[in-house]
Amino acid sequence: MTINVDRRDFLQLAGLAAAGIAGAVFASRLRPAAAAMRGDSTADDFLFLQMSDTHWGFSGPPNPDAGGTLAKAVAAVNGLTRQPDFIVFTGDLTHTTDDPQERRTRMAQFREIVRPLRTTAVHFLAGEHDASLDRGEAYREHFGDLHYTFDHKGIHFIVLDNVSDPQGALGDAQISWMRDDLKRFPREQPIVVLTHRPLFDLYPEWDWATADAAKAIDALAPYEHVTVFYGHIHQEHHHRTGRIAHHAAKSLIYPLPPPGSLPKKAPVAWDPDRPYAGLGFRTVDAAAAGDDYPLTEWPVIQG
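User: That's the sequence. What structure does it adopt?
Assistant: C-alpha cells below.
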C-alpha cells in the first residue's frame, strides 16, 4: 500500500513523536465525496475511532494484564485531545466460552468497562468468539442487531456479520439485504463497511477469510468510494481488492503473527521489556484534504 505523507501529515507525525506516541499515517480510499454531492465547498470534519478484539474473559501468558488492558485502553481513548465523533468495536468483544451464562456475564462486564468512554456514540460488532457458538443469541441480547447501517456526515456505514454463521459466511440473505440497501445510493456515495473477518482471502488456513466474501465485494464494486475496516487478525494490515481499501486493526489483548509466517497460528509472546507491544487502536480522520483520510495508530499506553 502506498504511504502518502504530506506537510500536514508530517507535522502530525512529528507531534506524535515529540509526545512519545508511536503513530503512522496511511492513505485510505475513504473519501469525502458526499460534501461535493451536496454542493459543499469543503467536507465536514469528523473523527472516528476503531477498537478491536478485546477478548474480555481471556487469561494466559500472552497477556499477563488481560484483566486490565481494556480499562487502560479506555483511559487512553479518553485522554485523546480530540475526542472522536463515535467509536466502533470491530468484534471479539469477549473471549469464547462454552458456558452460555458465562458468555452473558462476560458481555455484561465488557459493557461496564467501556461505559466510562467519553464518547457516548459507540457501535458494536460481533466476532466469532461472541457469536459463533449460539449464532449470536447472547450478543443480540446485550448489543442488538448483528448487521445494520448508520450514516454520519454524508458517509454511509454498513455493519456486516460474518461470524454468527459457524462457517464464517455472510449468507445470501444478508448479501441481498446489503444489495437492497445500496440501491438507495448513487455510485459516488462514500461507503464504509465494518466487519470482523476480512472480506478477502487473506489466509484461509488460519480462518482469515469470509467464505462468500466475493459476493459482498461484487455488490460493493460498482461504488467508487468504498473502504472496509475489520479486526480478527490482531495486527495492522492493509490490502486492496480493485479500488476497495481494506484496513485491519490491532487487538487489545495480544498480537498474532503475520499471515502464514508460522506453521501454526498462535499469539505472539508477551515481552516484559516492551509490555503491550503490538496492541493498540486507531483513529480515522475525515478532515484530510482531497480524497484521502489519514489513519493514525495509537498504543495502549501513551506518554
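The chain is about 25% helix and 20% strand.
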